[in-house]
C-alpha cells in the first residue's frame, strides 16, 4: 500500500524525500558545524590550542596538508558569518569572540611580513602563524581579497554598533582597522595578486567583487562617521572597480571568467562565491553587481556546475539537470583534484539567495542570458517575466528549490557519520579528504543553511548602482615633487630610487633621473599611490659609478589626495 502510494506520486515523492533528507541534515549538521567553527577559534577553541584570542585556524590539520595557520580570507568569511548571526539576534553569545577577532586583526595588520609593512602592502599577506607572527616561507602572495573580506565583516559589526548607540567605540576601535583595509584597496585594487585559491597571479573576479563591495559599504560608514573626504575617495574607486568588474563577463560563453590569467577554462567556484558574498537582497536580480539571481550569475552557475558532471566518478549517472558534486575548478589537481564541501555549498547558497529575492519581488525574469539555466527545468520556458500568480513561476521556483536542495543532499550523502567536514571529499567514492575540520567548510554549510531558511544578510548598498560611462583603471594617486639640492660635476647626474614599484624597487640601473631645470636643485614630479609609506634615497651616478646618500633611508608617506613637495639636500 505504501509502496504503491509512493510509486503513484512518482517524481514528486523523490523530491519530497530529498527535501526531508535535507531538512534532517540541516537539523543534525547545524550544531556540529557551529561547534566546528568555534572549536577552531583561539584561545579556548577545543581544536585550536596555541592560537591567540580571536585567531581562526584554517584547520587543526598540521600535516598533509599543514593548515595550522590563520588565513585572512578564511577568518574573515568565518567571522562575517558569526557577525551576521550576532547582529541578526540569532546568537547573542558571540560578542566576546567578535571583539577578540577585532583585536587580533588590529594586531596582525601591524605585523611586518614578506608582503610589506602595514603601509607598504603588508595587508595583502595571505596567512600568518597562529600566534600572529609573520609566516615567512614561500607562498602565493600577495592576495588582495583578505583586506576587503575583513573590512566587510567589521563594517557589518560597526553598523550594528552604531545602531546600538556605540559610535564612540566604532570611531576609536573598529574604524581604524577598517580604514587601513579600505586604504589598501584604494591603492592596490588595480594591481595583480594571487587568487583565492592561491595559485593564479592575475586579477580575479572574486577579489574584484569583494573589493567593490567593501568600498561601497565603507563609503557609507565613513559618511556616517563624518569623513566625507574618505567617503568620496572610496566611492570614486568603487566606481572604477565596478567598471573593471564587468570585464570578467564572457559574452560568448555566458559566464564570468574567474581570472584574467592562469590559462584555464575560467570556470570556477570563484564566481558563485563572489555572488553569495556580495549578495544584497535589496538589489534584486541586478546584473551589474552579479547578484545571485541575476541572469549573468545564473548562467555562470550553470556553466560552472556542468563542468563537473563528467570529471568525477561520483557524479556519474546523475541527470543532466540535477545537482552534482562540484570543486574549485575543473582543472584542479591539488590533492588529486576533488569536490570541496564549501564550493558545493556555495552553489546551493547562490540558488537559495535567488529564491529569497524571487519570493520578495514576486516574479522571475528569464532573459536570453539565463534561458539555458531555466530550460534545464522546463524545456518550454520562454524569455519573459513571470509573476508569482503564474504556474511558470511556481514551477520554476520549486524546480530551483529542488536543484538547490540537491547540492546539500550531496554534501549530506558525503558527510561522515560524526558530521565532521574536511576540505574535500573524494571524487571516486565521496570519502573525506585533505584538511579535516576545515573552519571554512563549517561556515559555508551554516550560511547555506541560513539562506535555505530565508535568512538574508544586511544590505551593503548594491541597489541602483550603474557602471560609469568612462572607466579609469588607476588606483588613487597623488602628485609628489622631489627636490634634491646637490652640487654636481659635469657629467654627473642625480637619480631617485626607493622601496615601491613606482620608485623602481631600489634598483640603481633603472633609478629615475631628476631634471636640472632649477640647478643646483635637482627635481622630479611623480604620480605615486596615495596613503602609502615608502623609503627612498637619491644616488649620484658618474661614469657608471653609483654613490648612495648616507644612511638612514629617507621615509615618506603620501597624502590621501592632492599633491606635495619634498625638499631634501644631498647627504
Ligand atoms: C596550497 C594552497 O593552499 C592551495 O590552494 C593550492 O592549491 C596548493 N597549495 C597547490 O598550489
Ligand atoms: C587552500 C584554499 O585554496 C584557500 O582558499 C584557503 O584559504 C586555504 N586553503 C586555507 O583554508
Task: Tell me what the structure shows.
Its EC number is 3.2.1.3. By secondary structure, this protein is of the alpha+beta class. The chain has a domain at 477-569: Immunoglobulins (Immunoglobulin-like). It has helices at 2-9, 11-39, 72-87, 95-109, 146-163, 167-188, 205-224, 228-246, 269-277, 295-306, 341-361, 371-375, 391-413, 439-452; strands at 70-71, 127-128, 193-194, 201-202, 249-250, 255-256, 363-366, 384-387, 424-425, 432-433, 477-485, 493-498, 512-513, 515-518, 521-529, 533-542, 545-548, 554-557, 563-569. The strands form seven sheets. Strands 12, 13, 16, 17 and 18 form a five-stranded antiparallel β-sheet that branches. A four-stranded mixed β-sheet has the order 14-15-11-19, with no helix packed on it. It starts with a helix and ends with a strand. Mean pLDDT is 95; it is low at 1-9. Bound molecules: 1-deoxynojirimycin (2 copies).
Amino acid at each position: 500500500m505504501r509502496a504503491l502510494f509512493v510509486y503513484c506520486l512518482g517524481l514528486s515523492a523523490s523530491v519530497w524525500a530529498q527535501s526531508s533528507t535535507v531538512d534532517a541534515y540541516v537539523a543534525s549538521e547545524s550544531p556540529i558545524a557551529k561547534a566546528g567553527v568555534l572549536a577552531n577559534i583561539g584561545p579556548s577553541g577545543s581544536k585550536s590550542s596555541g592560537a591567540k584570542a580571536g585567531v581562526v585556524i584554517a584547520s587543526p590539520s598540521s600535516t598533509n596538508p599543514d593548515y595550522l595557520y590563520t588565513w585572512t580570507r578564511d577568518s574573515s568569511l568565518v567571522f562575517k558569518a558569526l557577525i551576521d548571526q550576532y547582529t541578526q539576534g540569532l546568537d547573542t553569545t558571540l560578542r566576546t569572540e567578535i571583539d577578540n577577532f577585532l583585536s587580533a586583526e588590529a594586531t596582525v595588520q601591524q605585523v611586518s611580513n614578506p608582503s610589506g609593512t602595514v603601509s607598504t602592502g603588508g595587508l595583502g599577506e595571505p596567512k600568518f602563524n597562529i600566534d600572529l607572527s609573520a609566516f615567512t616561507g614561500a607562498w602565493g602572495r600577495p592576495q588582495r581579497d583578505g583586506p576587503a573580506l575583513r573590512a566587510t565583516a567589521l563594517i557589518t559589526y560597526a553598523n550594528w554598533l552604531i545602531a546600538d548607540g556605540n559610535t564612540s567605540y566604532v570611531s576609536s576601535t573598529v574604524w581604524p582597522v577598517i580604514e587601513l583595509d579600505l586604504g589598501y584597496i584604494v591603492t592596490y585594487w588595480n594591481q595583480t595578486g594571487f587568487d583565492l585559491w592561491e595559485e593564479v597571479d592575475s586579477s580575479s573576479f572574486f577579489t574584484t567583487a569583494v573589493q567593490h563591495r567593501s568600498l561601497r559599504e565603507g563609503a557609507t560608514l565613513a559618511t556616517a562617521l563624518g569623513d566625507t573626504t574618505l567617503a568620496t575617495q572610496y566611492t570614486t574607486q568603487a566606481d572604477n572597480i565596478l567598471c573593471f568588474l564587468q570585464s570578467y563577463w564572457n559574452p560568448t560563453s555566458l559566464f564570468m571568467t574567474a581570472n584574467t590569467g592562469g590559462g584555464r577554462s575560467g570556470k570556477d567556484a570563484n564566481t558563485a562565491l563572489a555572488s553569495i558574498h556580495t549578495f544584497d537582497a535589496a538589489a534584486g536580480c541586478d546584473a551589474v553587481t552579479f547578484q545571485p539571481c541575476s541572469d549573468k550569475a545564473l548562467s555562470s552557475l550553470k556553466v560552472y556546475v556542468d563542468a563537473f558532471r563528467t570529471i568525477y566518478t561520483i557524479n556519474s549517472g546523475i541527470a543532466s539537470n540535477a545537482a552534482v558534486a562540484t570543486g574549485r575548478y575543473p582543472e584542479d589537481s591539488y590533492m588529486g583534484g576533488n569536490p570541496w564541501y564549501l564550493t558545493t555549498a556555495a552553489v546551493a547558497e547562490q540558488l537559495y539567495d535567488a529564491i529569497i529575492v524571487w519570493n520578495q519581488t514576486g516574479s522571475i525574469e528569464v532573459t536570453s542570458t539565463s534561458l539555458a539555466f531555466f530550460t534545464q527545468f522546463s524545456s518550454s520556458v520562454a524569455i519573459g517575466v513571470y509573476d508569482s500568480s503564474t504556474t511558470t513561476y511556481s514551477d520554476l521556483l520549486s524546480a530551483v528549490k529542488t536543484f538547490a536542495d540537491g547540492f546539500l543532499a550531496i554534501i549530506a550523502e558525503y558527510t561522515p557519520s560524526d558530521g565532521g567536514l574536511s576540505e574535500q571529499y573524494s571524487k571516486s567514492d565521496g570519502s573525506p579528504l585533505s584538511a579535516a575540520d576545515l573552519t571554512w567548510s563549517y561556515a559555508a554549510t551554516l550560511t547555506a543553511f541560513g539562506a535555505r531558511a530565508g535568512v538574508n544578510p544586511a544590505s551593503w548598498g548594491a541597489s541602483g548602482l550603474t557602471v560609469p560611462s568612462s572607466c579609469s583603471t588607476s588606483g588613487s594617486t597623488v602628485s609628489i615633487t622631489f627636490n634634491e639640492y646637490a652640487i654636481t660635476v659635469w657629467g654627473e647626474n642625480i637619480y631617485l630610487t626607493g622601496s615601491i614599484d613606482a620608485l623602481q624597487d631600489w634598483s640603481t640601473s633603472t633609478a629615475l633621473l631628476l631634471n636640472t631645470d632649477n640647478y643646483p636643485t635637482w627635481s622630479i614630479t611623480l604620480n605615486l599611490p596615495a596613503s602609502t609609506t615608502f623609503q627612498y634615497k637619491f644616488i649620484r651616478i658618474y661614469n657608471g659609478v653609483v654613490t648612495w646618500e648616507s644612511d638612514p633611508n629617507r621615509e615618506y608617506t603620501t597624502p590621501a589626495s592632492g599633491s606635495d613637495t619634498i625638499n631634501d639636500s644631498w647627504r
